[in-house]
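User: Can you help me understand a structure? I only have the sequence.
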Amino acid sequence: MTRARMGSGLAVTVLLLPFGGYGLARAGVVPEGAPIALGLLSVIASSVLLPALCEERAPFRHSLSHLAAHTLTGERSVDLNRITTVRLLTTFSYGSTYRTLLVRDAHGVRLGVTTERSRRKLRRAIEKADANAARGVPRPRVSRAARAHLGLAPGRGLVVHTVLAFLLPAVSVSLYLVTVLRLGGQ
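Assistant: Let's start by predicting it. Here is the structure, written out as tokens:
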């Protein structure tokens, strides 16, 4: 868990670098164009680093109650009997769409599920949790888009999610770059 927090902290630090560069440029320590260069590099590095921190990579281990896989920040194991949230993360690259199901359990462990085998295990775990909800067991919060991606709900939620997943980062990155360029140009 500590390596996961360090990885997330590193990604946030990379995003904040241009603002530190702006302060150093105002003090005359670095050239005035440094925040612009840092901003462009930060956007690229963070867009690659953030989604990949908890994404599963081989080798995988599956049991009846756990999904375990290696990630960039070490091995993670999610308890399928104690899932608290499931949401869908959609990214775009080279004309393709990539979907990762972010699963968090009661222990706070987060794993990005990308393989078909893991998705089948997760789907069965959610179906089991939904069936147990009739007996008063709290069910996990599963987003509409995640349910649609797993085939547990109609696909309408997936269409809206995909459009928002494209527009939100595009607008956010544009605003971030405008801010960095304005600060760097002063």
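Now, to help you interpret it: Helices lie at 2-26, 34-52, 116-132, 144-149, 156-185. The beta strands are 57-62, 66-71, 74-79, 83-93, 96-105, 110-113, 141-142. Let me know which part you'd like to focus on.
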